[in-house]
Specification:
The protein is an alpha+beta fold. 29% of the residues lie in helices and 18% in strands. The mean pLDDT is 84.
């Protein structure tokens, strides 16, 4: 199955919550940097327009379907290699999106 939506993957900073939600609502896949760290590691959220599109995006970076977060904003939490894989999919990554060795 191809990428969900028509907008492709895009990175958003922690201050771009509205923009990330809007991108996902328009059919893109948003990788949103989370303000919170987990044990000192970067974390992020994966957003998409529908649950089905979100599942396709999440499983494409190796997430298990049962990791879905059904809160006010349907999303997946991303850490470690899952976040790195998602960031690598961003069309026009922000310099902050760069993956450190």
């Amino acid at each position: 199955m191809s990428d969900p939506g028509t907008g492709g993957w895009r990175y958003f900073t922690s201050r771009q919550v509205r923009e990330a939600r809007a991108w996902a609502a328009e059919g893109g896949v948003a990788v949103h940097e989370n303000i919170w760290k987990s044990k000192g590691r970067r974390t992020g959220h994966l957003l998409a327009r529908t649950e089905a599109e979100l599942m396709v995006a999440a499983t494409s970076v190796g997430c298990s379907e049962w990791w879905i977060q059904r809160t006010r904003t349907l999303h997946f939490d991303l850490v470690d290699m899952y976040l790195e894989r998602a960031l690598a999919r961003c069309r026009h990554p922000d310099p902050a999106c760069a993956i450190s060795p």
